[in-house]
Specification:
The protein has a single domain (about 5-255), classed as Rossmann fold (3-Layer(aba) Sandwich), CATH 3.40.50. It is about 45% helix and about 20% strand. It has 11 helices and 8 strands. The protein has helices at about 15-30, 45-50, 60-65, 90-100, 105-120, 135-140, 155-170, 195-205, 220-225, 230-235, 240-255; strands at about 5-10, 35-40, 75, 80-85, 125, 145-150, 180-190, 210-215. An 8-stranded mixed sheet has the order 3-4-2-5-1-6-7-8, sandwiched between helices. Strand 3 and strand 4 form a beta hairpin.
């Protein structure tokens, strides 16, 4: 199977986007897939979430500008089969710099091509910034599929309608005609509240089978894991959060078949 590139995106912050990118990548690696996590969020939370420091000059910034390659930016993690292209704050500058360049929306796709050609990874997971800026649009242009984490709260559907519109524009403009919505993941679910249940049923009504069956619970252990630089399956293997992301990873692999 050719390498699949999945962008994890939602322009609304605080929806469990990075938590989903990191834990999904770790669970896919634990299932035997060779995974590359590409952090293109200048906040670099996915980088620290897998235990790597935010190192000046280590991000994909220069490679996106065409200086050096993305392959030389790939670093190992402490977790088997999981590698990462880290991020750091200099990527903030890339938003402005890229806009001035030719093919400014295709810079990440161009930088990723040699990585794809090398065939060293089964899956590439891109953690996007919580915005629809140039870096996120580059992820949309480079990806085969889009995964949207959605918090179980009242405003959830607002964000997704904008992502749908942007996806349509990316496809229709010819920037990336193959981009598809892989699915919507409901995060921060609290089974004790009626609101969480209402939001899930409303989103399922709206998106049907595009909504993953697996729902990610709101748990303390899941919130703690990033501060220890570990994905949840390594931080607390038997927690509800670990179980949810393990099942989500299996469901995702089924969808990619």
């Amino acid at each position: 199977m050719p390498t699949k590139v999945i962008a994890v995106a939602n322009q609304k912050g605080g929806v469990g986007k990075t938590t989903t990118a990191v834990n999904l990548a770790a669970c896919l690696a634990a299932l035997g897939r060779r995974v590359l996590l590409v952090d293109i969020d200048p906040q670099a939370n996915a980088t620290s979430g897998v235990g790597l420091p935010k190192t000046e000059g280590a991000s994909s910034y220069r490679a996106l500008l065409g200086e050096g390659t993305l392959r030389e930016r790939i670093l190992p993690t402490a977790f088997e089969r999981l590698e990462v292209v880290p991020s750091e704050v200099d990527l903030c500058g890339a938003e402005i710099e890229l806009a001035r360049l030719e093919n400014h929306l295709q810079r990440l796709a161009l930088a990723l091509q040699p990585v794809l050609d090398a065939g060293r990874h089964d899956l590439i997971v891109i953690d996007c910034a919580p915005s629809l800026g140039v870096l996120t649009l580059n992820a949309f242009a480079a990806a085969d599929a889009l995964l949207v984490p959605l918090q179980c709260e009242y405003y959830a559907l607002e964000g997704i309608s904008m992502i749908h519109r942007v996806m349509g524009q990316v496809r229709d403009s010819g920037v990336n005609a193959r981009l598809e919505l892989l699915g919507v993941v409901m995060t921060m679910f609290d089974g004790r509240t009626r609101l969480s249940q209402q939001v899930v049923s409303e989103v399922r009504e709206h998106f049907g089978s595009k909504v993953f069956e697996t729902v990610i619970p709101r748990t303390t252990r899941l919130a703690e894991a990033p501060s220890h630089g570990q994905p949840i399956i390594h931080y607390d293997k038997y927690s509800a959060g670990a179980a949810a992301y393990e099942v989500l990873a299996q469901e995702l692999l089924e969808r990619l078949k």
